[in-house]
Amino acid sequence: MDGLKFDFCNLMEPRVEGGVSAHRLGADLADRFRAAHASVEASRQAGSLGFLDLPYAAETVDRVVALADGFAQWFEDVVVLGIGGSGLGATALKEALLGPAWNAWSDERRDHFPRLHVVDNPDPHTFRALLDRLDPARTLFNVVSKSGATAETMAQYLVAREWVESAVDAHKARGHFLFTTDPSRGALRQIGEAEEIPMLPVPENVGGRFSVLSPVGLLPAAVCGIDPRELLAGAAAMDDRCRTDELTRNPAGIFATLLHQADTEQARPIHVMMPYADRLRPVALWFQQLWAESLGKAVTLEGESRLTGPTPVAALGATDQHSLLQLLMEGPQDKVVVFVRVDDVEAEVRIPERHPGIGALAYLGGHTLGHLLDVECFATAEALRRAGRPNATVTLARVGARELGELLMLLQLATVYAGALYGVDPLDQPGVELGKQLTYGLLGRDGAERPDMLEPDEAWIL
Ligand code: PA5
Prior knowledge:
Elements: E1 5-7, H1 22-25, H2 28-46, H3 58-74, E2 77-81, H4 88-98, E3 115-119, H5 124-133, E4 139-145, H6 151-165, H7 170-173, E5 177-181, H8 187-195, E6 199-201, H9 215-223, H10 228-241, H11 251-266, E7 270-275, H12 281-295, E8 311-314, H13 325-330, E9 335-342, H14 359-362, H15 369-386, E10 391-396, H16 401-422, H17 433-443
Parallel strand pairs: 2-3, 2-4, 4-5, 5-6, 7-8, 7-9, 9-10
Antiparallel strand pairs: 1-10
Bound molecules: 5-phosphoarabinonic acid (PA5).
């Protein structure tokens, strides 16, 4: 199979009742997408969509690879400290391309590349348990924050810095840190410059959730031996496929247009991403953040209030067949499911032929676990279709760096197209500010007012 496939048959009429007619793909939906595509291309030309330049940033990649090679020789453990867009992309790459057991493998099996830990939540149990397992003399902390000020990440940095300095000479301690941050602003850059800590840039025009193909995702990948050039080649190939404004030839365009149509015309705002591969579950979580933070906006670009917008949900096949599927099949008709499946699962595990006389087991013998999972994906898609529930399937040839680059670029492009279709700014996140300001006030940050908090009402607390 050549390149990623997006199968949207089960979003179309008459396969799915109430689906989109073929006629509309060449008529009003094509026009709608052409306008969205033009707006995205204008933003690209204006330089505001920096993520579209990342696949071609050869100099940055050379620097990432050079730094990663050096770190890989020195350190046994690399800890990424970053949250939201600064952590989810690295986790998605790690799980997909290194697999779930990477950190448990021996040095030989890892080819002597370091273990990789991505820590987002400042939960003391998680952080303490991690530090207790690491050797400070052989650990690198990659502190990732575009703003260089995010409370969770900065707090973890402070703890990590003290922890390293308690075990390593002060002048050597800074060699255990790498900052990935804004190229010119922020507290992290200020500290890095003052203390000559190595730094990698998150380009000014690349926001957190669009940064996976910048040093934010590339360094952690490269330090564990993943070739960032393959990731970027896949992303560039998808970008190339999506240069056309012809809806039926543009996979990200179809993805965005049909999900937007499902929300705005079929009252289906819940968009479930359900990979049938454990390794791809973090990609669904990464997409959940991308779709939610980019499209969940209270006002349009025209300044009008809006109460609509999609709600992404990350699921996992086949696990969620035993959890969410009943709801997807028979619950409210307000959802679209996007499956992600893999053609070549690579690690085959054959199911032995035993208990030939017991029908409930006998049919499984001779198949493989990968085939079972894949058949379940097809069966679930067909069951949903028969129940009149629209769904689509992304197929990757395999879970490799190139294929992942294609997938991540598909979803990022779909997100900015969807932003244009909904008429919202997909690049900002004004809704997260108030909570941050209240946190700063409660913790006594300089310049932040202590907020008046409502006292709890005992009558309403059981
Ligand atoms: O996508 C986003 O912009 C956010 O999720 C940020 O990545 C997140 O808030 C972390 O921000 P920063 O990278 O500035 O620490």
